[in-house]
Amino acid sequence: MSKLLDQAVAELAKLPGVGRRTALRLAIHLLRRDREEVSALAEALQSFRNDIRYCRYCNNLSDEEVCPICADARRDRTTVCVVEHVKDVISIEQTRQYNGLYHVLGGIISPMQGISPSDLKIDLLLENIARGEIREVILALNTSVEGETTTFYITRRLANCGDIRITSLARGIGFGDELDYADELTIGHAIHNRTVIENC
Fold first, then answer.
1. pTM of the full predicted structure?
2. Residue 190 in contact with residue 173, Cβ under 8 Å?
3. What is the C-alpha to C-alpha distance for residues 46 and 50, in angstroms, rounded to an integer?
4. Per-residue pLDDT tens over the stretch 92-126
5. What CATH number is given to the structural domain containing 158?
6. How many domains would you assign to the chain?
7. Could you give the CA distance from residue 130 to residue 5 in angstroms, rounded to a whole number?
8. Where in the sequence is the domain holding 87, given as residue range(s)?
């Protein structure tokens, strides 16, 4: 195989979810495209990596010092949704069910991966709460052991923040899921978070 092709495949294979076979297909695809198209892709990636910033309020990705969500005066400034990564913001925004602000931690507490509370943007969250507008903090973290640990840690840190309502996303059986395939923890959350259908 060509040394240049091998280098391209090796770099593409470093992307998450991309194995060597997929990387080879992508490299061949790029080779078939016009040079201008490939140059535009390379420039976009280079600009993204070099020029992207993090919002000074919520740690979300931004082209400016303040992200569009934090800059939007129509957003509910009394509610902040705490998420692990930027992709979680995108997922929640796509539902069009939430109109508050966000706070991106940049990860979750994971001793196995060497991630401690000081590696996350928890102090920035506390600074934002100290400004006095926020009344509810929604903890929208994954239901893994690490996610639960992070939720517990943040809840403890928020205990001294005055009259702040701390909530988490409802958890349980997903729409269309069958009980046979759900684990005990998921079923337990579903029972605990059950809702009233009708009072008789």
1. 0.78
2. yes
3. 6
4. 999 888 999 999 999 999 888 889 988 899 999 99
5. 3.40.1360.10
6. 1
7. 53
8. 54-168
